[in-house]
Every structure is written in structure tokens, then in C-alpha cells.
């Protein structure tokens, strides 16, 4: 997967090149141990920070600024590595990078750019190493700390003259992958000469275009494949917790889901590359997918309606991977010189592309659009794509990237900027009112 980071030098980009590892059994065991140590480090310091914060509140005070910075956490990690043998066997660079990730997650949380950092659960296996002494690449071989040389499937070459910044190892289903973050020079971007196009993101038709281009359909699981996935899920639920048969059933289900995810990701890459290199302007709806796919269950006092139907619609919408498609378009347009323009998505399916009359009656069915004012008839998705193309961009995000969310917490110290969600529920404290594990930290 490719990505562009905002911290690159002018004319340079950071691109990720991902390959599958061909690791031996003993290397896979070491990878599992290393990923488990990094996951434990993340959860331990996340919990330690929470308990220290609650202990300080219970004592009527606050944490000092920088009390849980990366430097203080790294100092505590050094002490823990002397006490815990299996933690000492793990690579120190990977553990330190995990602490940097945690520190960055809290920084984004306090700045209002992301939610509160969540614990990493079993199966979230990934870690990163950096530094010239930590790794080396030679052809289709990579040397990783505590592991030695491991072969990977080199499906494409790395950029000539590029500099590898770091290496990330992750697991997807039953396979391990290695990703190289390469800093390389970009060629001068020249905007493509193709005509502008509007995109309508939907479910029945994944992406409809404003011109005569055929609608694009993501390779999402069809009815037969969805039935097979449900069958695998039932097999998991019928196995005993902790048994070997349940573990094998979970692996079968994970492999199948990863296969479908790779198909969708590959199709999204091919489509976005074609659009970014052939179209001068790409107009898309500025969808809020998180709000659109929220549950309709409601509350006990006010239960929701049509919960099952809404859940099915949410699954179908998320399966189209529209968020991934827009993210890929964003950085590819920036590199190719094309413009990605976000438009207001309100009532695009009810507005006539000819007379711009808006009415729910304009769409008598899912696929048919018939304007009640001028009589214009068209496919509903094609008409919506034309509306997206013609709508003005005033007040919308007319850029490759959306701006950061505004925050009203300016002028307050990071440790006091936001109350932890767990403060809203009863939290068991010791006899002194301070958690035992956090008494020393307070």
C-alpha cells in the first residue's frame, strides 16, 4: 500500500512497498514473540498512564507536564527489560518504536485529531524497526533484529536511489508481510489533459461516472461467497474456546476475509491510478462514512427501528471501501497534478441534473431517476454523478487533503485537556482512594 506523509522534503515522498515474507517456522515463532512483546508494551504503558491519571485525580492533583513522555516511558522500559526475561529477548528498537507510537497517539488525541488510544488485542501483530544498524536489504532478502535474514517475495523493485527510512513487519491472517518506507524523489507533476469527471459512490453500483464511462463495481463478496463466510463464522462459534479446532477455524475465516480485502484493495489501486493519471479534475462527494454507518439500535428508553435492515446496509456500504478509495485518490492526485475536489453530498440522489429541481419523488426506485418538474429520465447513479460534477465547491474542502478538525482546548495543558472516558463510570480504588499499581506513579 502506498502512502504520502506530510513530513517529507520538497520534491520527495515517503512511499510504502509491501511484500510477503517467506519465513521458516522458527522465524514465524520469533515474529509472534516479537509482535506479542510490542503489543504487551503498548497495553502496559497505556494502562499505567490511565491509572496514574486517575490516581492523581483521586488525590486532588494533576499530572506534571511530560510525566509520561517517550523519554520517561523508555526509561521505565529499560527497568522492565531487566526484570522480565521474555521482554529482554525482544528487540529494543521495536519496543521503543511502540512507545513512540503511543506517545504520538496521545498527542493526536489531545490535539483533537483522533480518538483516545485503544488497547491492542490478540491478533494485532505489528512492529517497526528503524536505524541503519537495525535492518539491511539485499535483493529479495531482509535482515531483521533477533531474526536474521528472511526472504520476501519481491513482486516489484524499490525506487532507484531511494533511502529506506524504516521497516514494518505485520501479520495478515496466516501470512507475515514486510513494508519498506522509502524516501525517493518525485518527478515534476503535470496535470493530465483528460476531461473532469464526477463520481457517485454507492452500493448497487460501487462508483458511477458523470460521463459515458461504464460504472465500476468493486469485487465485493457475492451471495455465494457471503454464504460461505457465514458458514465459516458458524464453525468458529461452535468450537470450544481455547481449543485447537477453534484456532484452526478462526484461521480459515481470517484467510478468507483477507483474500476478499486484497481483491478490493487491488481493484481500488488500479481504478484510482487510472483516474489520477487521465483526469484533470475528479469531483467526489464529501461523505461522512462514520455517521452514515452508525448503528440504528438506539437506547433502551428509545429503541431504534429497522435495526436489522440498517445493519445490512452498513455492511454493504463498508464493503465497498469508499473511504480507502478516496484516500488513495488523495495522494495519487497530489503526485500526478490532478485536482481532487470534494462536494456537498446533500440530496445528490434527489436533484435533477438538467433543471436542478430537488424532490424525493424524483427517484421512484433505486435505479430510476425521473424528474417530476422537467421530465428528465436517467439512471439514478449516473444522474447523481452529473450533479456532483456541476455542484459548486464553495464552502467545501477543495484540496487534496481536508483540514484538521478544530479544537477548543487551546491554552490548557495536555494532561488536563480531556477527561478520560473511564472517569464517567465507577472505577475500583484501593482503601486509600488510589489504585495500588499507580500509587508509586502518583
At a glance:
With 442 residues, this protein is α+β, with helices and mostly antiparallel strands. 37% of the residues lie in helices and 17% in strands.
Description of the molecule:
The protein is of the alpha+beta class and 442 residues long. The chain has 2 domains: 12-188 and 411-438, no CATH class; 197-390, no CATH class. It contains 10 helices and 13 strands. The chain has helices at 25-58, 70-83, 85-88, 92-110, 223-237, 244-278, 289-292, 307-319, 322-336, 380-390; strands at residues 12-22, 126-130, 136-138, 141-144, 148-152, 163-172, 175-185, 197-201, 207-209, 281-285, 339-343, 368-370, 377-379. The strands form 3 sheets. Strands 2-6-7-1-5-4-3 form a 7-stranded antiparallel β-sheet. It is globular and about 80 Å long. It starts with 11 loop residues before the first strand and ends in a 52-residue tail after the last helix.
Task: For this entry, give a set of tags.
442 residues; alpha+beta; 2 domains; 7-stranded antiparallel sheet; 4-stranded mixed sheet; 10 helices; 37% helix; globular; disordered N terminus
The oligomerization state is: single chain
The helix-strand sequence is: EHHHHEEEEEEEEHHEHHHEEEH
Q: What is the CA-CA span between the terminal residues?
A: 43 Å
Mean pLDDT: 84
Helices and strands: which structural class?
A: alpha+beta
What would you report as the Rg, rounded to the nearest angstrom?
25 Å
Instruction: State the share of residues found in helices, binned by percent.
Output: 25-40%
Low-confidence stretches: 1-7, 394-442
What is the 3D form? globular
Report the strand count.
13
Amino acid at each position: 500500500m502506498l502512502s504520502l506523509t506530510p513530513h517529507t522534503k520538497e520534491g520527495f515522498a515517503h512511499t510504502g512497498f509491501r511484500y510477503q515474507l517467506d519465513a521458516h517456522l522458527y522465524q514465524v515463532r520469533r515474529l509472534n514473540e516479537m509482535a506479542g512483546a510490542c503489543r504487551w508494551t503498548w497495553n502496559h504503558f497505556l494502562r499505567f498512564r490511565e491509572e496514574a491519571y486517575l490516581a492523581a485525580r483521586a488525590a486532588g492533583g494533576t499530572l506534571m507536564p511530560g510525566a509520561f513522555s517517550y523519554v520517561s516511558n523508555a526509561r521505565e522500559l529499560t527497568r522492565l527489560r531487566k526484570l522480565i526475561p521474555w521482554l529482554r529477548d525482544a528487540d529494543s528498537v521495536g519496543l521503543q518504536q511502540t512507545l513512540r507510537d503511543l506517545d504520538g497517539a496521545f498527542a493526536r488525541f489531545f490535539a483533537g485529531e483522533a480518538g483516545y488510544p485503544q488497547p491492542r488485542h490478540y491478533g494485532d501483530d505489528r512492529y517497526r524497526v528503524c536505524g541503519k544498524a537495525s535492518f539491511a536489504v539485499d535483493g529479495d532478502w531482509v535482515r531483521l533484529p533477533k531474526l536474521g535474514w528472511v526472504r520476501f517475495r519481491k513482486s516489484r523493485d524499490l525506487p532507484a536511489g531511494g533511502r529506506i527510512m524504516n521497516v514494518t513487519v505485520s501479520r495478515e491472517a496466516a501470512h507475515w508481510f514486510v513494508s519498506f518506507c522509502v524516501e525517493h524523489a518525485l518527478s515534476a507533476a503535470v496535470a493530465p489533459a483528460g476531461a473532469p469527471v464526477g463520481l457517485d459512490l454507492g452500493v448497487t453500483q460501487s462508483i458511477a461516472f458523470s460521463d459515458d464511462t461504464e460504472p465500476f463495481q468493486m469485487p465485493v463478496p457475492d451471495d455465494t461467497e457471503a454464504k460461505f463466510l457465514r458458514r465459516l463464522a458458524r464453525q468458529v462459534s461452535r468450537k470450544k474456546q481455547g481449543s485447537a479446532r477453534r484456532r484452526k477455524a478462526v484461521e480459515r475465516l481470517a484467510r478468507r476475509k483477507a483474500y476478499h480485502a486484497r481483491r478490493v484493495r487491488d481493484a481500488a489501486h488500479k481504478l484510482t491510478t487510472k483516474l489520477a493519471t487521465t483526469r484533470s479534475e475528479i469531483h467526489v462527494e464529501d461523505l461522512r462514512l462514520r455517521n452514515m454507518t452508525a448503528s440504528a439500535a438506539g437506547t433502551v428508553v428509545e429503541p431504534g427501528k429497522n435495526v436489522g435492515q440498517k445493519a445490512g446496509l452498513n455492511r454493504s456500504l463498508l464493503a465497498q471501501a469508499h473511504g480507502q478509495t478516496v484516500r488513495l485518490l488523495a495522494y495519487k492526485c497530489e503526485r500526478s497534478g490532478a485536482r481532487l475536489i470534494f462536494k456537498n453530498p446533500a440530496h445528490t440522489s434527489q436533484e435533477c441534473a438538467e433543471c436542478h429541481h430537488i424532490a424525493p419523488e424524483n427517484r421512484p426506485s433505486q435505479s430510476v431517476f425521473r424528474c417530476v418538474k422537467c421530465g428528465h429520465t436517467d439512471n439514478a447513479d449516473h444522474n447523481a454523478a452529473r450533479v456532483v460534477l456541476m455542484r459548486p465547491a464553495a464552502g467545501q474542502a477543495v484540496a487534496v487533503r481536508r483540514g484538521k478538525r478544530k479544537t477548543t482546548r487551546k491554552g490548557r495543558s495536555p494532561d488536563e485537556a480531556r477527561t478520560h472516558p473511564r472517569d464517567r463510570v465507577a472505577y475500583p480504588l484501593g482503601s486509600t482512594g488510589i489504585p495500588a499499581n499507580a500509587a508509586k506513579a502518583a
